[in-house]
Amino acid sequence: MQRIRIGQLEVNRLGFGAMRLCGPQIWGPPKDRAAALKVLRRAHELDCNFFDTADSYGPEVDETLIAEALHPYPQDLVIATKGGLVRPSAPRWDRDARPEHLRRALEGSLKRLRLERIDLYQLHAPDPRVPLAESVSVLAEAQRAGKIRHIGISNVSVAELAEARRIAPIFSVQNEYNIGDRSSEDVLAACERLGIAFLPWYPLGAGAALRSQKVKQVAARIKATPAQVAIAWLLAKSAVMLPIPGTSSMAHLEENVAAAGLKLSVQDLADLS
Fold first, then answer.
1. N or C: which end of the chain has fewer CB within 10 A?
2. Is the link from the previous residue into 72 a cis peptide, with omega within 30 of 0?
3. What's the maximum distance between 2 C-alpha atoms anywhere in the chain?
4. Which residues contact 94 (CB under 8 A, 6 or more apart)?
5. How does pLDDT run across 193-244, given as a tens digit for each residue?
6. In 3D, which of 79, 86, 120 has the Cα closest to residue 102?
7. How far is CA 195 from CA 82, 170, 173, 187, 261, in A?
8. Which run of H or of E encompasses 148?
């Protein structure tokens, strides 16, 4: 796989998003815990050495699964987690980026992941009730205390990225982005200018990319699957792109990882534009 730098860290350019290992609606434990643990271990065996999670996945389930499957962690594994969303019930994803909440969220993630320092800790989303500078300042404070190595932000605009960078160095941005939803094109461009890793969430558009006629046509022509084409397109789109497709299926995991070796031609890329 190609490699990408996130601050002092260097990882393979295709990561693993662990969110889908939780129960339905990303709520509660997986129906088959042993299978979920096997998927996590297999993802690392397949050279995914960047895992993305959050305290809100489950909630508090996903991080526990990662630790159960892989602790003590392989030396090359980078675990990124997030804080700033709360789950009062299965359908809800409420923003809470108050300083007191983020401090509690970070401590909880450290405990569940069995870590003394988190390599990449991301603000899950700006909270309209809290100045962004206050939220990012809490992460900078934790970084100075040695609990966070690098800071990332998620679900932000170009202006919010600039504001966060005035408080602390930002090494990653995680926004929704895929072949069918390019609304964060300006944020991606800013990350390219600044050398910041861009983590596209919903890299398959929650399945929409797989139903795209142009994706299916290219897949048929090059004898790949639509998922592989959608992931390969992201990798070709930008050198700062770090896709994190997630799945609870071993077969889908292996299919997704194979996309790292898929080279799209100039014609393929033109047809997908």
1. C
2. yes
3. 53
4. 85, 86, 87, 88
5. 999 999 999 998 888 888 899 999 999 999 999 999 999 999 999 999 999 9
6. 86
7. 21, 10, 11, 12, 24
8. strand 148-154
Type of residue found at 197: A
The token duo for 242 is 């770090």
Single-letter amino acid code for the residue at 195: G
Place of tokens 């930008």: 238
Of 98, 15, 24, whose CA–CA distance to 49 is shortest? 15
pTM value?
A: 0.96
CA 170, 174, 180, 183 torsion-angle sign? negative
Q: In this structure, are residues 120 and 90 in contact, taking their beta carbons and an 8 Å threshold?
A: no
Q: Are the C-beta atoms of 246 and 253 separated by less than 8 Å?
A: no
Between CA 45 and CA 53, with CA 47 as vertex, the angle to 5 degrees is 90
Question: 25 near 187, Cβ under 8 Å?
Answer: no
202 is catalytic: no
- Active-site entry in 57, 121, 177, 202: 57
In the structure encoding, which two tokens stand for residue 256, read together? 């997704």
Provide the token pair at 135.
Answer: 């939220």
Beta strand 94-95 with 85-86 is antiparallel
The SS3 call for residue 176 is: strand
Residue length, the chain? 273
pLDDT at residue 207, rounded to an integer: 81
